[in-house]
Amino acid sequence: MPEPLFNRIAVIGLGLIGGSFAAAARKNGLAASIVAGSRSARTLEQGIALGVVDEGSQDLAEAVKGADLVFVSTPVSAMGKVLSALKPGLSRTAIITDGGSVKGNVITAARESLGEHVSRFVPGHPIAGKEKSGVGAADADLYRDHRVILTPTEATDPAATARVRAIWTAMGAEVLQMAPDYHDQVLAETSHLPHLLAFSLVDTLARQGDSTEIFRYAAGGFRDFTRIASSDPLMWHDIFRENKAALLQSLDLFSDGISRFRQAVSDDDSDALMGIMTRANSARAHFLAMNERTSYTRAHHSGDDTTMTDSTTHSASHSKHANPTFVVTPGGRLTGRVRVPGDKSMSHRSIMLGSLAEGVTRVEGFLEGEDALATLQAFRDMGVVIEGPHNGQVTIHGVGLLGLKAPGKPLYMGNSGTSMRLLTGLLAGQAFDVELTGDASLSKRPMERVARPLRDMGAQITTGNEGRPPVRIRGGQPLKGIHYDLPMASAQVKSAVLLGGLYAEGETSVTEPAPTRDHTERMLGGFGYDVRRDGATSALTGGGTLTACKLEVPADISSAAFFLVGASIAEGSELTLPHVGINPTRTGVIDILKLMGADIRLENQRDAGGEPVADIVVKSAPLKGIDIPEELVPLAIDEFPAIFIAAACAEGDTILRGAEELRVKESDRIQVMADGLAALGVDHEVFEDGIRISGGPFAGGEIQSHGDHRIAMSFAMASLRASGPITINDCANVATSFPGFAQLAAHAGLNLEVK
Question: In terms of pTM, does the model score above 0.70?
Answer without folding.
Answer: no
